[in-house]
Amino acid sequence: MSTPTIYKRSQHSVSRKRISENALKVLNRLDRAGYKAFLVGGAVRDILLERDPKDFDIATNARPDQILELFRNSRLIGRRFRLAHVRFGREVIEVATFRARHEGEKDGASIADTGRIIRDNVYGDIDEDVWRRDFTVNALYYNIRDHSILDYVGGVEDVRRRELRLIGDPAVRYREDPVRMLRAIRFATKLKLKIDDATEEAFNRYGMLLSEIAPARLFDESLKLFHSGHGLEAFEALCKYGLFGHLYPLADQSFGSDRRAYKLVVAALRNTDHRLKQSQSVNPAFIFAAILWGAMVKRRARFLVTEIPESEAFRLAADEVFSEQIKIVAIPRRFTTTVREIWHFQARLSKRTRKHVEKLLGHLRFRAAYDFLLLRVEAGEPLKELGDWWTKLQELDGVDRESMITESRALPRNGRRLRTKRKRT
Ligand code: ATP
Ligand code: MG
Fold first, then answer.
1. How confident is the model at residue 401 (pLDDT cuts 50, 70, 90)?
2. Nearest 5°: CA angle at 364, between 363 and 368?
3. Scanning 99, 233, 309, 355, which has its CA 20 to 30 A from the CA of 8?
């Protein structure tokens, strides 16, 4: 087919010291068994960019059953792409057999009418495999036999220029797999690469194809985008290219009528990026709480004009928002439950009676709910006094805290006067 540019060991910066020992073990064992074995994908790209790879992907001409035979600690996964996972404690090395290009249906391949690849398990050689990959910088093969890099697509030059370029015709490649648009945004923001014009221009045209993708996959991609450490940039890029609305249509609509809903997501992602930079933990529910807040508030307002009580209106609004959203992005139940709790707490945080305050402070979700309240303040909601009150309360203890709670009974509650209650005896 085509001849690669070969970069000898002296001409590139991928040293074995940067490759995990387990990945080297797998590469060497495949090599000794007479198979071709290459490190490929994100690891080669990241090392060339002077970054630590997140994981190590290997490509080989060994068939899945041959990989299984060679590694007792391996198992096959995936349907769309069948590959082997070789496990070493917590580290998993992904080993994929070279795939061939195929036109239409063949044994092991399946393509939908729209051109989307449903199954892609026709095996081939490296010079076929390369054209199945998404971006040039992801299609570099580090050969364990002589430590050279094989480059069929100009990926090394693109790394040097810091450009993200789709291999082939964007119209075809996005139709085959629309998720490549989301991957483009993730790599561009995380690795500070410039998306090349053709790769970028097609976003507008093919964004709607994301509706064909399984909701579980879109959830995974969403998390990767928002938890990359550059979540804010990724979000802004998704909005700029009109892709966000294909993933979170209700949220996107709420941004149009309420700028604070948008600013809340900005504040949440800025906060998440910051936490990740400090190696602090992040709960995915927090981001989804921010993304869908505006949509929930909008729905709730619709219920409130009827005579439904506030808590019921909230519950109905949340139900509607989730049931529509999970059809597109499958946010797992355990996260939607937490999102509900964070939301539900927002109303409770404005009740500053002793009984409430004590209960809230001791609650598992207090911290998340309080953090969320501060984000709402940051987004421009008129809740600064309430936020400051909770901040100060947590700094006090004993008698000081007691008196603060007692004094608060005269304070306005979310703009409304606090209903006077009978003193507890
Ligand atoms: P990360 O740093 O997130 O692991 P990565 O580039 O290694 O980035 P993976 O999802 O681990 O991404 O995939 C490994 C490689 O497989 C990619 O570099 C790319 O060559 C190929 N690949 C993965 N997903 C696709 C896709 N949707 N279309 C085409 N090629 C893909
Ligand atoms: Mg990878």
1. confident
2. 105
3. 99
Q: Which domains does the chain have, with CATH numbers?
A: 1-161 (3.30.460.10)
Q: What is the pLDDT of residue 306?
A: 81
- Whether 365 shows a pLDDT value over 50: the answer reads yes
Asked if residue 181 has its Cβ within 6 Å of ligand 1, the reply is no
pTM for this prediction: 0.90
Q: Does residue 406 have a pLDDT over 90?
A: no
Least confident stretch, 40-54, 116-130, 203-217, 292-306: 116-130
Mean pLDDT of 171-176: 94
Residues labelled as active-site residues: 55, 57, 134
Least confident of 87-91, 108-112, 196-200, 264-268: 108-112
Tell how far CA 242 is from the center of its chain: 17
Give me the pLDDT at residue 100, please. 84
- For the Cβ of 178 lying below 6 angstroms from any atom of ligand 1, the answer is no
Q: Give me the pLDDT at residue 419, please.
A: 44
Which 3-state string (H, E, C) describes the chain?
A: CCCCEEECHHHCCCCHHHCCHHHHHHHHHHHHCCCCEEEECHHHHHHHCCCCCCCCEEEECCCHHHHHHHCCCEEEECCCCCEEEEEECCEEEEEEECECCCCCCECCEEECCCCCEEEECCECCHHHHHHHCCEHHHCEEEECCCCCEEECCCHHHHHHHCEECECCCHHHHHHHCCHHHHHHHHHHHHHCCEECHHHHHHHHHHHHHHHHCCHHHHHHHHHHHHCCCCHHHHHHHHHHCCCHHHHCHHHHHHHHHCHHHHHHHHHHHHHHHHHHHCCCCCCHHHHHHHHHHHHHHHHHHHHHCCCCCHHHHHHHHHHHHHHHHCCCCCCCHHHHHHHHHHHHHHHHCCCCCHHHHHHHHCCCCHHHHHHHHHHHHHCCCCCHHHHHHHHHHHHCCHHHHHHHHHHHCCCEECCEECCCCCCCC
Cα of 46 vs centre of ligand 2, distance in Å, is 10
What residue's CA is closest to ligand 1, atom 13? 41
